[in-house]
Amino acid sequence: MITEIGTVFHDKLEGREVTIRGWVYRHRTSGNMVFAVIRDPTGLIQATVKKDRVSEKDWKDANDAYVESSLTVTGVVKKDERAPGGYEIQATGFSLVSRGEPFPISKDLSDEFLLDIRHLWVRSRKMTAIMKARHHIVNYLREFFDREHFYEIAPPIITKSGCEGGSTLFEMDYFGDTAYLTQSSQMYAEVFIFSLGRVFVFAPSFRAEKSRTIRHLAEYWHLEPEMAYYDHEMNLKLQEDMCQYVIENMLKNHSGLLEACGRDPLDLEKVKTPFPRMEYKDAVDRVNELGGKMEHGEDFGADEEALLTKELDRPLFVHKYPKGIKAFYMKEDPKNPDLVLNDDLLAPRGHGEIIGGSERIWDYDELVSRMKEQNLNLSDYQWYIDLRKYGSVPHSGYGLGIERFVKWILNLDHIRDTIPFPRTITRCYP
Ligand code: 4AD
Question: Can you give the pTM of this predicted structure?
Answer without folding.
Answer: 0.97
